[in-house]
């Protein structure tokens, strides 16, 4: 049976998922939470024993994680959790900005009261958690729910999932940055600016608010590299 890890308490129930999907999602979350740190060597045999599955689901899960850029499979030396790669991160950021600014522009063209109620409810829940580092996982889950809600309201939920698959490096940066003082507050404030611009039907303001919000982690990348050098590839490293 697939084991549940304490860091996974906020993730959706996977009882209906296949073994490879369940292993993939659990390993991905453990990497994003740094439960499996960069440079960690992953043994297929050990993972199969840990999850109580055969080697086939483990192999398929690791192949999917390699496509996400979160592990590197080396046939002769095993599988290693990758470090955060700045080039991959910047490309993921470009994709995300392109998608999410268009999403909020469309939503602002015809504000939906149901969307606004849902988004404001998520904001209220996030506000309760501001400053509580022990609730980082819940805060992050609400953050993802906020953005996913916007994609769903725009009728492009599949695009959300496509973008999310490319977000591993950026999500790890966000995880490193979230405990810093004021970060949670700034996220909530940015979300509120997006929602109010949509409510006002101001397409340009909604786009600008989302662009500014998504730039937050990128603008602090050098700070994060200095603070957590072991989590990042060397500049220019392939």
TrEMBL record:
Residues 17-84 form the HTH gntR-type domain. InterPro entries: GntR_C, TF_FadR/GntR_C, Tscrpt_reg_HTH_GntR, WH-like_DNA-bd_sf, WH_DNA-bd_sf. This is GntR family transcriptional regulator. One of its GO terms (molecular function) is DNA-binding transcription factor activity. Keywords: DNA-binding, Transcription, Transcription regulation. The keyword Cell division does not apply. Pfam families: FCD, GntR. It comes from Ponticoccus litoralis.
